[in-house]
Design a protein that fits this description.
The protein has 458 residues and is an alpha+beta fold. Helix content is 50%, strand content 11%. It holds the Pfam family BPD_transp_1.
Length: 458
């Protein structure tokens, strides 16, 4: 024993083990644990440190050094590669798209994850629902990209998105039965938005022939009957529109026995450039304007009769390709956000929620003023993690965006790969500079997460 400050007694180092042993076996083990040499801990950490050095520290340092040399790596160019990166239009497009990703994707995923986590707390099959939402995380980003490339195919017979769009569109606007059909040459001229106007003028009592070409007889609408020519002796302006196939011994511009009328066509009477009457052809292709005033008229077939059917949207074109890829990423990551937020919700004291309800708070008020503030740290961690993930996005853009649209959907990770290893690339100095820029963009979010984890441990 030794005398300590203020007359207190203190056990000498040689006596500490004896005192610990006297207090029991647990105390003895604790004493020996405190005296574990530091070199032994370092020995266990050495394999991990070696791997971190080889696969993390060395690539980062080498990339920084390589970014200051030319494409061949033989000539030192300083910061020229960084200047070229910021002046290159492709890199600026990639930076803009990365900014769009950071502003939109993590926010939407966090909101969806929060909503699903809160709503599934009140249903019996919450586990099954969450498992289904989490399943996309089990698929690689490359495979998910292939799936969504098929979903957004432009052909409605192949792409699910356009098949749904065409179905909804056609439910409100019936498609034309005569796509690509036209008047036979010499019978009319094209005006306006594809409207066909007869070359001659007609008066009430005349008969107008409108021979159509450009489709097969088997493609006529159901119910089409044999075409007939309206008889004379009427004061109405009448006529017939039919599919003028002119097979074998048929006669062009004249109705033959085998030819059928074109039902459902919109026909207009035009006087002095203005439409004065509108009618529709019957099953045999005939039409009539009975109440026209005397004068000269032309007959017009509006272009809507011959419009091509709606085939959906060009989802993977330059204008929509980035939102499409973001939607794919949201589908993949919503399950991840929901799972983490649900774990945070499970840790909320139920007493606080019940107290808020007893005090008269509505479910919306409880959610906004109690639930969200209590899981605020979890939401922040999820959001920052998603930001880090978004900045490194590569596979989805590479797989989903077609070659013609890839430049519009470009992001920094893809630009780095294209410059370094893509066709026409090979400039690893510039590619390393872009990689360093990407690393510097990710670094603040990583440091924020690390500091937050440390504060939570304390």
């Amino acid at each position: 024993m030794t005398v300590g400050p203020a007359g207190t007694t203190e056990a000498t180092p040689d006596r500490r083990d004896d005192l610990a042993a006297a207090r029991g076996p647990q105390a003895a083990k604790s004493s020996r644990r405190k005296r574990t040499p530091g070199w032994l801990a370092l020995l266990f950490l050495l394999p991990a440190l070696v791997l971190l050095g080889v696969y993390l520290v060395y690539p980062v340092v080498y990339s920084v050094v390589r970014s200051m040399f030319d494409s061949d790596g033989n000539r030192f160019v300083g910061l020229n590669n960084y200047g070229e990166a910021f002046t290159d239009p492709s890199t600026r497009t990639a930076l803009k798209n990365n900014l769009i990703w950071v502003l939109v994707a993590p926010t939407v995923v966090t909101v969806f994850g929060l909503l699903f986590a809160v709503l599934t707390e009140r249903i019996r099959w919450a586990v099954a629902f969450r498992m289904v939402l989490f399943m996309p995380m089990a698929i690689s980003l490359f495979a998910s990209g292939v799936i969504f490339r098929l979903v957004y195919q432009e052909d409605p017979e192949l792409g699910v998105a356009n098949a749904a769009a065409v179905t909804v569109h056609d439910a409100f606007a019936a498609p034309s039965h005569y796509p690509g059909v036209r008047l036979r040459d010499g019978q009319g001229t094209v005006v306006g938005d594809g409207d066909y106007l007869t070359a001659k003028t007609y008066r009430p009592g005349d008969v107008v022939n409108l021979p159509l070409v450009g489709m097969q007889a088997t493609a006529l609408p159901p119910g089409a009957s044999g075409a007939i020519t309206p008889g004379g002796g009427s004061t109405a302006l009448r006529g017939a529109a039919w599919l003028d196939v002119a097979l074998l011994h048929g006669h062009p511009n004249a109705i033959d026995k085998v030819e059928k009328g074109a039902p459902g066509l919109t026909v207009q009477a035009v006087k002095d450039g203005a439409v004065v009457a509108t009618t529709t052809t019957g099953a045999d292709g005939t039409f009539s304007f009975p109440d026209l005033a005397p004068g000269d008229y032309r007959v017009q077939l509006p272009g809507s009769n011959f419009a091509a059917p709606f085939r959906g949207l060009t989802w993977l074109g330059p204008g929509l390709v980035t939102p499409v890829i973001i939607s794919c990423w949201i589908w993949i990551m919503t399950g991840f956000a929901m799972t983490f937020i649900a774990a945070g919700l499970a840790a909320i004291p139920r007493d606080a929620l019940e107290a808020a309800r007893v005090d008269g708070g509505t479910e919306w008020q409880v959610f906004r003023k109690v639930t969200v503030p209590l899981i605020g740290p979890v939401l922040l961690v999820v959001f920052v993690t998603l930001v880090i993930n978004v900045l490194k996005i590569f596979e989805l853009v590479y797989v989903i965006a077609p070659g013609a649209s890839q430049a519009s959907a470009n992001v920094l990770a893809l630009q780095m790969w294209q410059v370094s290893f893509g066709a026409g690339g090979g400039d690893q100095g510039l590619g390393s500079a872009i990689g360093v820029i990407l690393f510097l963009l990710v670094l603040p979010a990583m440091l924020f997460n690390i500091r937050r984890f440390r504060r939570e441990r304390r």
